[in-house]
Amino acid sequence: MKNLFLFLLTLASINTYAQTNEEEAVKQTVSNLFTAMRNSDTSLLRSVFAPEAVLQTIAKKKDGSIMVRNEQVSAFVSSLAKPHTDIYDERIVFDKVLIDTDLATVWTPYQFYIGTKFSHCGVNSFQLVKMNGEWKIQYIIDTRRKENCVGQ
């Protein structure tokens, strides 16, 4: 019975260790996205995305109705490549990271600054896929607002 207990404890420890390593790898991929944005590093930016990644934003129209706006990764990368004097600084908090084999979901509330000026806040929802041993962002959808932002 003692051996069974030790075996189960060892299995649980290995699973926890593996999950923690995978969680850190997922967080690193997401963090690399925001490091790339701050540094206008288009090479790093491209490297975090899966080949067919999808970017979407939930937005309100002038009439108050909701729409989902799509953006191509290539357009996003190009926008960061254009010269700009201020740093694009998206400050995130890792709220939830869920992983099942090669799929990860990440929920990150954020505040976005252009230089030192607050621009907007919201939440990012990421879907990542492990491809060839590396976590890649397959899908991002976010919300954006200027009010009801924590810590603004």
Could you explain the architecture of this structure?
Helix content is 35%, strand content 43%. The protein has 3 helices and 7 strands. Strands 1, 2, 3, 4, 5, 6 and 7 form a 7-stranded mixed beta sheet that branches. Strand 6 (117-131) and strand 7 (134-143) form a beta hairpin. The radius of gyration is 18 Å and the shape is globular. The termini are far apart. The model is unreliable at 4-17 (pLDDT under 50).
List keywords for this structure.
single chain, 152 residues, alpha+beta, seven-stranded mixed sheet, 3 helices, globular
Largest sheet: 7 strands, mixed
Q: Considering DSSP H and I runs of 4 or more, what fraction of the residues is helical?
A: 25-40%
Structural class: alpha+beta
Q: Which spans of ≥5 residues are poorly predicted at pLDDT below 50?
A: 4-17
Q: What is Rg?
A: 18 Å
Our estimate of the beta-strand percent is 35-45%
Distance between the termini: 56 Å
Average of pLDDT: 89
User: Shape from CA axes?
Assistant: globular
Order of helices and strands: HHEEHEEEEE
Number of strand elements: 7
How is this structure best summarized?
By secondary structure, the protein is of the alpha+beta class. Helices cover 35% and strands 43% of the residues. The protein is globular, with a radius of gyration of 18 Å.
SSE diagram, text form:
Layout: H1 2-39, H2 42-47, E1 49-60, E2 66-71, H3 73-81, E3 88-92, E4 96-100, E5 103-114, E6 117-131, E7 134-143
Parallel strand pairs: 1-7
Antiparallel strand pairs: 1-2, 3-5, 4-5, 5-6, 6-7
